[in-house]
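Predict structure. Chain length: 467.
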Amino acid sequence: MVRPSCYLNAVEIGDGNSLFYNGFSMCIDVVPSEIAHRLVSSEDGGDFSFLMPAEEEHLVKRGHLTALTIADEREAMGKLARAIAERDVAPKEQPFRGKIISFILTYKCNLSCTYCFQSEVRETASVSSMSETFVDDFFRNYLDKLFPGTPKNRLRFILFGGEPLLPGNRGTIERILRYAKEHGIVVSTATNAVLLPKMLDLVGPEKGKINNVQVTLDGGQTFHDETRVTLSGAPTFEKTIRALRHLINAEAKANVRIHLHPDRLESVRELVEYLEQEKILGNDNVEIYFAPVHSFHAKDMSPSDFDIFSGLFQYVALKQKKLPIQNFDFLEQIMNVKTIRNWSQPRYCAVSTGMHFALDPLGDIYECLEEAGDKEKRVGTLSGGEIEYFELREVYKKRYLVNMPECLKCSIALFCGGGCISKTRTQGGSVFKQFCVQNKVFVGETLKACFLLKQAGKAGAGTEYVC
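Prediction complete.
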């Protein structure tokens, strides 16, 4: 007697077909959507007489159907998670390339966005900005201790804020760029881009310049100008688009972060259409990706909103030939996985990997950028030429699925890794709780995009997806 696996998921890919993706066996298969719907909605056990014997045998072999009881399958999942954790006690290079230091140059900002996660920190920050002297001292006395043994050219610097490109930060930025040039380090920044024209001489593909720039858009012009405004309340959409054109002309890489807000997906569609019309979407130096803000709950999306989101996700993926996602971009490798034997511990982001540290003007060290400025969430601090680490760093290291029992019941745990630490803690949970309100939707759409991109590559440039 077999039943559908507890870890079975399906996403429609068009032409009457769906992808089965199994969060336990990690197998992915194309099946007719009619079969997918009937199996995913089946109760424990069931009548599978609609399957040919060979079809049922194949689905059992791939783990989509199983003879295990629910309890036995979940116990097996726990054993698998434990084996992965024991093999991957010291994660090193997957799925992150090199190691990252984010310099939080200031908590100050020239905008007053309605949803800013730093608004409270900004009011209490005791040091206004990171000084040139501080940066020199860090490079001289602390950098090698933060990532011991790591070659300099394996590092990546990110300039962060607040707003990192405030005019008062120029001297500090130039010091960081000078060091980066000497050691072959790539430099990126996340900016609202309003002041970017005054810093264009520091941007470009050359060594010693800011090579990658992330800017954010909230939707079409009307909605964006309601949510992302200057301190005086002035709109910013046109300034952001103007900055994007400057970046394209400077041949720097531009990452366009499009925020997803509840009930505002029509505005996102308006924005995508505008970016394509302006030849920003599809430009070789521009990569667009979607990111939910705190209030975006995919589980609450109406069917029409879901259709808009799914269509936009796939449309952008095919237009730019890249996944429009960051947290789940590593899922692309799953399409080529032959066995789960060497599968690594999944991570939603760099937190708990030891691959990323954020340094603020006080010398405090954080792993999560959204936690920066909250001293209770520091993992360390610079002190007297040494780095003093706190207990939280060791706690983060233990954020494995095997230590998150609720996650082990989830059908996408091995794809997701438990979700955002910051968001689950903001909601009063512990580090070992999950945050997953939109993750199933994003995992499904990401795997679908991986499949459609592969199909488009095989079929040639004529393959399209309707926005």
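Summary: The longest helix spans residues 439-459.
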